[in-house]
Amino acid sequence: MERPFLTAAWRNLVVVNWEVSPDLLVPLVPVGTVLDTFQDRALLSLVAFQFLETRVRGVAIPGHINFPEVNLRIYVRRELEGETRRGVVFIKELVPRWAIATVARTVYGENYHAVPLSGEIDDPHFRYNWRCARQRQHVAVEVGPERLPLAEGSEEEFVLEHYWGYARHGNLTREYQVTHPRWESRPVLNLDLHSDYSPTYGAEWGRVLQGEPRSAMFAVGSAITVQPGRPLST
Predict the structure, then answer these.
(1) Which of the four CATH numbers 6.10.140.1670, 3.90.920.10, 2.40.30.30, 2.40.400.10 does domain 6-228 have?
(2) pLDDT (tens digit, 9 = 90+) per residue, 213-224?
(3) Which of 13, 16, 175, 221 is the one with CA 20 to 30 A from 157?
(4) Rounded Cα gap, residues 80 and 93, in angstroms
(5) Is-contact 72 31, C-beta < 8 A?
(6) What percentage of the chain reaches a pLDDT higher than 90?
């Protein structure tokens, strides 16, 4: 495997999932992939986490090493001969630094935006705050102390065990690989969601996110690598 473009640690991942109509997600699926489902259910996930110890091509950039990220994502897979690549597609990604957003858009074609964004980490309480369109938004959880392996075939495994990313550009698709060890989870005891996410994601997604979540998860996280992106041959 070639040298990673980025190394970091993803820690304290808060993941909230909604079951949605596949018809809503299919238009977002990049060419060369298909919508992935869990037990025939299409999922949409709001994910907030700490991006730590970040290095680009081995270089730590001052002021851009430790920061939070919030993203909204769906799940896809790419079928190859003898291999299934299960991946994610990001609808929108938030970070607190414009330089981070610019690099991610340029290198990976991802829909990154720079907004005021912070994390409040006081184990067992984890809260992520941001502001869009002058409106404050947040997601927060309280978690239990137990660190548990992801059960085979579980919804947690489906949501958290993805090692590929796909970005759509018209009829073109960019693919990149993420590596990390299998994560552990901690049980979510309490979930606190903002009442209206439309300032961040627009009216249509805001309505979806006002619905009752299907599940909430917390992953401990680990060190990760992100490989350079490649155009997909279809």
Answers:
(1) 2.40.400.10
(2) 999 999 999 999
(3) 175
(4) 28
(5) no
(6) 81
Three-state secondary structure call for residue 206: helix
The helix/strand/coil state of 53 is strand
Query: DSSP assignment, residue 163?
Result: -
Give residue 28's region: left, alpha or beta (phi > 0; psi -120 to 50): alpha
Q: Using CA atoms, how far apart are residues 180 and 226, in angstroms rounded to an integer?
A: 9
DSSP string, 85-125: EEEEEEEEEEES-HHHHHHHHHHH---EEE--EEEEEETTE
Taking the C-alpha atoms of 217, 220, 225 and 226 in order, what is their torsion angle to the nearest 10 degrees? 20
